[in-house]
Amino acid sequence: MEDDAPVIYGLEFQARALTPQTAETDAIRFLVGTQSLKYDNQIHIIDFDDENNIINKNVLLHQVGEIWHISTSPADRGVLATCYNKPSDSKVLTCAAVWRMPKELEPGSHESPDDSSSTAHSLELLCHLDDTAHGSTACVTWEPTGDGKKVISLADNHILLWDLQESSGQAVLASSASLEGKGQLKFTSGRWSPHHAGTQVATASDTTVRGWDTRSMSQIYCIENAHGQLVRDLDFNPNKQYYLASCGDDCKVKFWDTRNVTEPVKTLEEHSHWSQEPPRDGVIATYEEHEDSVYAADWSSADPWLFASLSYDGRLVINRVPRALKYHILL
Question: For 182-222, what is each residue's pLDDT tens digit?
């Protein structure tokens, strides 16, 4: 039964890392990573049963540190990558590693979300994506249409292309590039385009968005001052190969045509209210189930009308595109 009502799941710890399980296209599944300084951190595997509108979960222990970013293999449902904090010589580095979840969790076995006595499972470390010479890792992004053997990590001002070999048990640094310029330049986020045979990656650093060719690790476009403040995130349109969206601390969402980046194609700067008949380009709906800062929102890889959002207090909310709008688009 389809229902527009949100479904809420609460984690015990604070959290800001969220991802759909990309290789899972049948079941609706999200992974959430926690941030606790006192206790062992966890990855919650959230299965959403849309027929009955309920959530089931499994818990994985992530004992190496607070999780700042999480991503999943596009080819193997059991493989994921995390970026996590690790103390090193009186400072804290953000490291990255590739993991495998237990085999019994891959098909979708689960426990009740209110079963506090459930046993947490252990992750198997496959390999590290660390090179301390490159600094702290902001995120890891997988080649979206590949076999799960290529990932890019962004560490301080370095973009690093890794080949995962021996069933992801070894990571070989294939090539890299660096940001050049004044000041302490750092990447904040990046996305691998699902188009162009997997040869393009977009990155954000401060207020600038850049495009890279993964074959030569050279810059192919640069959007300086893409936003008035820090660029927080970006993503490609999966259906239109040249279109890229970005959002920033200036509270704007901008859409770009990467063939001509002189001006954005569209800029959205909306208020918290919306009309009964929204404009063609504008706010469709506002969701207000969160009480703390929302750090992540991701679409399901199995249902294009469903998404999850995560706030820092550990509240995960699963919502749908309004049913009336969905049928208006489809019919």
Answer: 777 899 999 999 999 999 999 999 999 999 999 999 999 99
Please give the structure tokens belonging to residue 140: 């890891």
Look at residue 228 and tell me if it is in a domain. Answer: yes
* Enclosing domain of residue 244: 181-269
Residue 275 burial (10 A CB sphere; 0-12, 13-18, 19+): exposed
Segment 122-154, tens digit of pLDDT: 999 999 997 667 889 999 999 998 889 999 999
Structure tokens, 267: 């800029």
Domains of the chain: total: 1
Number of residues written out for the chain: 331
Cα(276)–Cα(287) distance, rounded to whole angstroms? Answer: 15
Non-local CB neighbours of 304 within 8 Å, separated by 6+ positions:
none
Is residue 29 one of the residues assigned to a domain? Answer: no
Inside any domain, residue 224:
yes
The CATH number of residue 245's host domain is 2.20.25
Q: Which residues contact 271 (CB under 8 A, 6 or more apart)?
A: none
What region, left, alpha or beta, does residue 94 occupy, with left being phi > 0 and alpha being psi -120 to 50 degrees? beta
Is the Cβ–Cβ distance between 56 and 113 less than 8 Å?
Answer: yes
Count of other CB atoms within 10 angstroms of residue 315: 18
Q: Note whether residue 204 is domain-resident.
A: yes
pTM, two decimal places: 0.88
Q: Is residue 154 within 8 Å of 187, Cβ to Cβ?
A: yes
